[in-house]
Amino acid sequence: MKEKKILITGASIAGPTLAYWLNHYGFEVTLVERAPGLRLGGQNIDVKGPAQHVSHKMGIEEIIRSKNTTETGLRFVNVENKTIAEFPKESALSMTQELEILRGDLVQILYDLTKDSVEYRFDEHITALTQTNEGVDVAFSSGEAERFDLVVSAEGIGSHTRKLVFENEAKFNYLGLYTAYLTVAKSDTDSDWARWCNTKGGIVFLIRPDNYGSARASITFTAEEDEYKGLSLEQQKAALIKRIKGCGWESERLIKEIDQTKDLYFDRVSQVNLPRWSEGRVAIVGDAAYCATPIAGKGTDLSMAGAYILAGELFCAKTYQDGFAAYERKMRPYVQSCQKLPPGIPKLVYPQSKIGVKILNSVVSLIASRPVKWLMGLFGGEKKAVKEEIYLADYGNEFAAELKNW
């Protein structure tokens, strides 16, 4: 492919992964990020399946392993903090994976891997772009302008660049939930186990250990789609405190943390669906294109696999149009499978009443009981090697083989 100068927007996970592989294949890559530096906040994420495969190919799997969050498994607790069910990370029912890492740590690893070969521009974003037969003329917030052969948005669910190109094509599948994330000081009640607690009002608290002597908390609850839309940070804090006040467990501890936190993330839980992932010389990847939400547990898989496939297909294609088409053809079935949720999820996990919470806790306790664990063991109750979810070609070798046949 003759187009070699590529602009990427967004320095989270998909963007630097795409930048690594494009540079690996000989492209000239510039990556811009709206924030003044790396955004290193965020919660625990798992690197498994396609993401683990891609990280292995990039030579960073062991670095990721060394940054493990130390989490040993998942405990369900009631409002009195009594453990009602326990699932160690070896269990098929545990959210804890072999490679658990903080989002910010993975972002730092990817940046360190690419910073010497990719041009990073922080505190910069696209304000306008115009496509021509020769390339994409990009205007930046700094007042600078530059032409690129291709542009790829690897931004988040609210991608500004996506709106500039695709306008209102993105459809958001709201799952009936809002979620909040923040870092909290470690308490005597914390350990190397993640703790999940359901309370009345459709609220789920989750506190997980990290490898920095603190803990990561999330609060997810049912709400109308626009109930908390457009709030300032202080308004978000006030709304969140009001919602969880008096609901028990460690709500009072979390209220104090919310009041003083500087790293609060608070937003709706929505999936992103678009009929296409490219328009002319512009494409989208990661959450901007196909966010599956944390409920699906596939965000890192989708971001890293999508970036890997997009870079590989552009490398192998005769034209960028062919590359974009092949990327979408190979990724879309996987995206669709990742966005499918089991029947009743997430509503079943967020009961509104005390009796509903009690019933849910009883079911979870039963699943974790010895007889049920024994029965599940007969059918493979421990985590097994996951079958290949999506084929990740070895593009360098396959392209070389194709050249020989020409």
What does this structure look like?
The chain has 406 residues and is of the alpha/beta class. The protein is built from 13 helices and 18 strands. The model is unreliable at 372-381 and 400-406 (pLDDT under 50).
Secondary structure topology:
Blueprint: E1 5-9, H1 14-24, E2 28-33, E3 44-46, H2 49-58, H3 61-66, E4 73-77, E5 83-88, E6 100-102, H4 103-114, E7 119-122, E8 126-131, E9 136-140, E10 145-148, E11 150-153, H5 160-166, E12 171-185, E13 193-199, E14 203-209, E15 214-222, H6 233-244, H7 251-260, E16 265-273, E17 278-279, E18 282-284, H8 287-290, H9 299-316, H10 320-339, H11 354-367, H12 370-378, H13 395-405
Parallel strand pairs: 1-2, 1-11, 2-7, 4-13, 11-18
Antiparallel strand pairs: 3-6, 4-5, 8-9, 9-10, 12-15, 12-16, 13-14, 14-15, 17-18
Helix pairs in contact: 1-4, 1-9, 2-9, 6-7, 9-10
Summary keywords:
disordered C terminus; about 400 residues; 6-stranded mixed sheet; monooxygenase; 18 strands; about 25% strand; alpha/beta; FAD_aromatic-hydroxylase; 7-stranded mixed sheet; FAD/NAD-bd_sf; FAD-bd
Question: In terms of per-residue confidence, which ranges show pLDDT below 50 for 5 or more consecutive residues?
Answer: 372-381, 400-406
Helix content class: 25-40%
Oligomer, anyone? single chain
Overall number of strands: 18
Q: What's the short story on this structure?
A:
This protein has helices at residues 14-24, 49-58, 61-66, 103-114, 160-166, 233-244, 251-260, 287-290, 299-316, 320-339, 354-367, 370-378, 395-405; strands at 5-9, 28-33, 44-46, 73-77, 83-88, 100-102, 119-122, 126-131, 136-140, 145-148, 150-153, 171-185, 193-199, 203-209, 214-222, 265-273, 278-279, 282-284. With 406 residues, it is α/β, with parallel strands linked by helices. Residues 5-336 form the FAD-binding domain.
